[in-house]
């Protein structure tokens, strides 16, 4: 059987790296993307596992980078069957203190970056009449969050992007879905104080934090042929937090 290829943005660490390992362990070609620091350890792990992968530097919010990364992935592996738009940043502050630049910056990476990568990859998927686009939103995009107007807006925007792309591409056998993680243990959430973590924990019915594999497992299913009749959906993986 022909190997499938997944491109995962922001996969140098956290959820993206977790997804990369999960797909690689199941025989996919994996295209890693980092913006600043080459993920040397992750690459060593993938090599040890005998995975086929490519690691590309690129900023998802820069149109030329998005196009170049898709081109290089196709040159290496022939096609892209799945795209996971995972790259994301936070620049938290209360709304009244937030600088316009910090609002724009977060929208640029999280939302515009997802749009640019989707646009570039979907032209490849349309030719093949097959594709799976998986966008990483957030529970915060569903519920809002004090101190995160920029981040919540970007993650809510990703939901609109997901549904619109799903409608535009459904007839081409390309699905587009969003995953809305709750609180997942990564470097992004490590920076929160113990007090904040405790209060978040109090809001999670299952009483525990999520792991990167919790997201990787769903991303993998949404990238599979078996999920072909699911599109335009937002699926929360949050221990019941958004109920
Ligand atoms: N951790 C959580 O609890 C949680 C919850 C909900 C949603 N999310 C979302 O999941 C995704 C991954 O989160 P994480 O916790 O692994 O975060 P993380 O900070 O550990 O990883 C984010 C990754 O994105 C990359 N990145 C940042 N800007 C980029 C750019 N311009 N171009 C390319 N790559 C860039 C970073 O280098 C990093 O590899 C993000 O979109 C985040 O918003 C995380």
UniProtKB/TrEMBL annotation:
Reactions catalysed, as given in the entry: a (3R)-hydroxyacyl-[ACP] + NADP(+) = a 3-oxoacyl-[ACP] + NADPH + H(+)
* Quaternary structure note: Homotetramer.
Q: Summarize where NADP(+) binds, as residue positions.
A: 10-13, 86, 151-155, 184
The family classification in the record reads: Belongs to the short-chain dehydrogenases/reductases (SDR) family.
InterPro entries found in the cross-reference section: 3oxo_ACP_reduc (IPR011284), KR_dom (IPR057326), NAD(P)-bd_dom_sf (IPR036291), Sc_DH/Rdtase_CS (IPR020904), SDR (IPR050259), SDR_fam (IPR002347)
Key words of the record: Fatty acid biosynthesis, Fatty acid metabolism, Lipid biosynthesis, Lipid metabolism, NADP, Oxidoreductase, Steroid metabolism
What protein does this entry describe?
3-oxoacyl-[acyl-carrier-protein] reductase
The active-site annotation reads 151
**Annotated gene:** fabG
Q: Where is the Ketoreductase domain?
A: 4-182
Q: Which SMART domains match?
A: PKS_KR
Q: Which PROSITE patterns match?
A: ADH_SHORT (PS00061)
Q: Which domain of life is it from?
A: Bacteria
What's an example of a GO molecular-function annotation for this chain? NAD binding
Q: Which organism was this protein described from? A: Proteiniclasticum aestuarii
One BP annotation, GO: steroid metabolic process
């Amino acid at each position: 059987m022909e190997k499938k290829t997944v491109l995962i943005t922001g996969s140098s660490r956290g959820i993206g790296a977790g997804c990369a390992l999960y797909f690689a362990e199941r025989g996919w070609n994996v295209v890693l993307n980092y913006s600043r620091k080459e993920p040397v350890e992750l690459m060593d792990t993938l090599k040890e596992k005998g995975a086929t992968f490519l690691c590309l530097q690129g900023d998802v919010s820069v149109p030329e980078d998005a196009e170049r990364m898709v081109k290089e992935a196709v040159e290496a592996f022939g096609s892209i069957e799945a795209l996971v738009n995972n790259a994301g940043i936070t620049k938290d502050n209360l709304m009244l203190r937030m600088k316009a630049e910090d609002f724009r910056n977060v929208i640029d990476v999280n939302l515009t970056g997802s749009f640019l990568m989707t646009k570039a990859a979907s032209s490849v998927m349309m030719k093949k009449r097959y594709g799976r686009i998986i966008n990483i939103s957030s529970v915060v995009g569903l519920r809002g969050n004090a101190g995160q107007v920029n981040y919540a807006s970007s993650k809510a925007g990703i939901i609109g992007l997901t549904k619109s792309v799903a409608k535009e591409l459904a007839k081409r056998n390309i699905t587009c879905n969003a995953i809305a993680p709750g609180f997942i243990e990564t470097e992004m959430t490590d920076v929160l104080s113990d007090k904040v973590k405790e209060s978040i924990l109090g809001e999670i019915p299952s009483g525990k934090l999520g792991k990167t594999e919790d997201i990787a497992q769903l991303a993998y299913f949404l990238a599979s042929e078996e999920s072909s009749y699911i599109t335009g959906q937002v699926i929360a993986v949050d221990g019941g937090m958004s109920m």
